[in-house]
Design a protein that fits this description.
The structure is a homodimer. By secondary structure, chain A is α/β, with parallel strands linked by helices. In chain A, 37% of the residues lie in helices and 16% in strands. Chain A has a 7-stranded mixed beta sheet with strand order 9-13-12-14-15-17-16, with helices on both faces. A 6-stranded parallel beta sheet of chain A has the order 2-1-3-4-6-5, sandwiched between helices. At the A-B interface, helix 2, helix 4, helix 5, helix 8 and helix 20 of A face helix 2, helix 4, helix 5, helix 8 and helix 20 of B.
Chain lengths: 555, 555
């Protein structure tokens, strides 16, 4: 077999050998041998997307929900460029993606054919690893290296560029990627310092990111905070948070600069767990860039590439937080040293119901007894969040690109059934619909509900077609305010009293977008809702029925 | 005024002073001061697009039709990334664009806020000029330098990056960009060599690109070819060609590799006029990369950055091609030395009818007497081209992203009314609908007809909304074959007998896209046509009525 195998076939075999079973694809001519190899060799599900930014956003969310990297299949240079925005978001989420990009044949590149451009150069700013295969014989080994790089804790984008001749030449050799290593331990001295800061009595905050936002570590952090009087927050844009009844109701740093500064006011010690220093999303004239007070000490308990949950467990022990060993999920599990999830943000192998079995009576004590009920009447952001909390099924995945309209959703959904909240991480809008698509591929038994601002949704509206084709369990809620609302707010911040030119550039009416037509044009059934009652009925029907649906919410 | 002006205001004044009056915009937060300045200072038309790749594709075609650069207004890093594919096409078209990209404030960039990425690095592969403004006081001068760079013959992309603080800080100074210089003369020795080759009697071909594809230079080339027995061709992907009755019926090098090789077979001397050596679009196993025979000599008469029309005029004189002085347009104009158009590919100030006045009886002699008539019955590519030739109005602009379906359109439209043919130049699909949008903004009195493959059209479908908002005279013909037909062809070339996985990745049905719903969802009225008769009726009605329309042609 080996002597007859071409480079593309060795690539497919190497992916399969590493457990990679999903490729999000938008192929072009230079990828035809890769397509042919995927066709001949069973074992990989190929999901066609009609735009590269759907491919990359889907691969990002697939990782966030499964902890397994998907591969992409992108066309050379400008094809990759089309997918960079969601690769940027994936990079900020620290997601693992094996990003495979075709390219001109090695010997054709010097001829500068019109579709030639700098594939490597465009890939580099979003990739932790970039390699262009030189020969068919090297493709397998290069792919294994890319897979290993992608799975480096907590995850990164590994771009493998495949010149056409390295795909079609004979001589491919299958390689075996090493298994992913566990997360590196945080520095024990960092844990000691954190314990001292928490015991000091000075106002201290735990800022949690990455794997520390899963259910168990959040309880660890919660109990540490309870025992020491510390505060807890999440970053503005976490990749994935475990939420709902029986879980820790963690707030995020707010997006608006003044609210963000207020949220850290008076803090003297800021302890970072799996995240970086909080900074303003943008600079604003006369406002600080760092969000913590000038006299605040920043202490890194665990870097994003270190084991944050493990560091919290060690810290809890050091502080003698007896009750704090892992929250409901891990209660009664002390023998195993608070066995926090070592798989990073992907815990796909946890079965729905596992947690409940362990939890017992604790849930009622910790949960919110006020079960959510649907809201009625005119639509407001708070009511939307309330109905969402009431109607989302257990283990739902909420994908949040609601932008300005969704800023108040968080507190109204703490008492929802257990769910994961997956949101835009890098500020490059157009992630919501693709992420919903990839999350649904990764977690087919869970309902995905995407809260999608209309202006942002238009960037990657093509994702709806893949939802229809793959019959994905996604409920798309489009928040149709028909303007770039966040920019109107920002323009007001600038102090401008906008005239018609500015308003025209921030206004999405004239003509109004009709999302029902857009959605049905791509095969996803859809309806408008102009009141909470209409929304409630549509949302309830949608989550009870398999397949995708779109609700255009006229807000 | 100066001491109160901020950087953004100095930018707007500098653009206006240089005659730039159109901005294609997709703004974000870091561009709010630029938006506010555009709002306060009259003189620039701002055209909102719902995706950055619509912005950049529109700016490309605006240049191709007007010869004046538009400016863009793009959001930082990932915003620019979203527009790179059509910047790539614009680079290959050698279009001039003043590409303005916002960015993080200079002092905020080191904080690595989540929306930060390598704006300069992403811009460089498509730009002839990249500069990041350092202070508000420098913005005007930097903008003038960018405008001058963009207008360097024949045109290039000049990227000006505007950190937020350089826009909002006071101290802006307006600068005056230098007027564009005329095209540099080709080397006179190159003209002498070309004359010798043409006189040699060996099989010789003129390969024409850039400004040599305008009406006058094409006649010059035609007459040189007639006098010397040389052949003429255009490149595979020219940016703009003057075509129709009374103009030279120039063929392009075909896209398929075997046909491309055939088109240059037997040529001993290849003379390049404003274009580069012809190479295969992609490499194919066992096929050559250069399209000309191994024993062919390649001679550069004029590089793309030299005055191709001027070189043709000098060459015609040197060869004593008496009748060849400019064709109908310039006939009787010998006193002025065959005054070829010195404005490059933009000749917006030529009024419809100017040519006719000069042409007189020559037109009948040169034109095709077989006036086109509409085709009826079942739809074929040839019939579509024939009906297009019969129904397009005088001075139409045909935007061609028909891909595989449109390869045979050329010969069937030689006898159409005079028109310009504008096509995908860089192979990065998703240019058609944006280019149609920008062409219609640049040439509001002309009907734009875009021949758009369905798969490619989906990449930038958002362009339709801008057509609706701006009430543009665009007829969008979607060639709805519901597959990536070109890739099925390429897969067959690979020798694969495709199975369901491959077919699934190249098939756009399941579900079918409904282009009528997509179009109406963005405010562009639309209808389906399943026969030539239905197409004829819809096309005729559309070109007679102002505003946009979309025809989904079921092919």
């Amino acid at each position: 077999m080996t002597e007859k195998m071409n480079g593309a076939e060795s690539l497919v075999h190497t992916l399969i050998a590493a457990g990679i079973d999903t490729v999000f694809a938008n192929p072009g001519t230079s990828e035809m041998h890769f397509v042919a190899a995927l066709d001949r060799i069973p074992g990989i599900r190929c999901v066609l997307c009609l735009h590269e930014n759907v491919v990359t956003g889907a691969a990002d969310a697939y990782w966030r929900m499964t902890g397994k990297p998907a591969a992409t299949l992108l066309h050379c240079a400008p094809g990759l460029a089309n997918g960079l925005a969601n690769l940027h978001n994936a990079m900020r989420a620290r997601s693992a993606i094996v990003n495979i990009v075709g390219d001109q044949a090695t010997y054709h590149r010097p001829l500068d054919a019109v579709l030639t451009n700098d594939t490597e150069g465009w890939a580099r700013p979003v990739s932790g690893f970039v390699r262009t295969a030189a020969t068919a014989a090297r493709v397998g080994a290069d792919a294994a290296a890319a897979i290993e790089a992608a799975r480096t804790y907590p995850g990164q984008i590994a771009t493998l560029i495949l010149p056409a001749d390295t795909a079609w030449d004979a001589g491919g050799v299958v390689a075996q990627a090493a298994l992913p290593a566990p997360a590196p331990h945080a520095n024990v001295h960092a844990v000691e310092v954190a314990a001292r800061l928490l015991r000091s009595g000075a106002p201290t905050m735990l800022l949690l990111g990455g794997a520390a936002l899963m259910e168990g570590p959040l309880w660890l952090a919660h109990d540490i905070a309870q025992a020491t009087g510390a505060k807890m927050l999440g970053p503005v844009s976490p990749a994935r948070v475990a939420r709902g009844r029986g879980r820790v109701p963690l707030m995020r740093i707010p997006y608006p600069i003044d609210m963000a500064l207020e949220s850290l006011k008076g803090i003297k010690n800021l302890i970072l767990v799996g995240t970086t220093e909080p900074v303003a999303f943008f600079a604003y004239p006369g406002k600080p860039g760092y969000l913590y007070p000038e006299d605040c000490t920043v202490h890194v308990l665990a870097r994003p590439d270190e084991d944050g949950p493990g560091a919290l467990a060690t810290l809890a022990k050091m502080l003698g937080v007896a009750e704090g060993c892992g929250g409901p999920r891990f209660r009664g599990d002390d023998e195993k040293g608070c066995g926090v999830d070592e798989k990073g943000c992907g815990d796909d192998e946890k079965k729905p119901g596992d947690d409940e079995k362990k939890r017992g009576d604790d849930e009622k004590k910790r949960g919110d007894d006020n079960l959510p009920v649907v809201a009625t009447g005119a639509i407001t952001p708070e009511k939307l969040a309330q109905s969402l909390a009431a109607l989302m099924p257990e283990d739902a995945i909420i994908v949040d690109e609601a932008i300005s309209y969704g800023r108040g959703f968080y507190p109204y959904t703490f008492n929802a059934p257990k769910h994961d909240w997956v949101q835009l991480t890098g500020g490059a809008i157009g992630a919501g619909l693709p992420m919903a698509t990839g999350a649904a591929i990764g977690a087919p038994d869970r309902r995905v509900i995407v809260l999608q601002a209309d202006g942002s949704g238009m960037y990657t509206v093509q994702a709806l077609w893949t939802q229809a084709r793959e019959k994905l369990n996604v409920t798309n809620i489009i928040l149709s305010n028909r303007k770039y609302a966040i920019l109107l707010h920002e323009l007001a911040n600038v102090g401008a009293n906008p005239g018609p030119t500015a308003l025209n550039m921030l206004d999405l009416s004239n003509p109004d977008l009709n999302w029902v037509q857009l959605s049905e044009g791509m095969g996803v059934p859809a309806a408008q809702a102009a009141s909470m009652d209409e929304l409630n009925a549509l949302l309830k029907a949608s989550v009870e029925r398999p397949g995708p649906f779109l609700i255009e919410l006229l807000v």
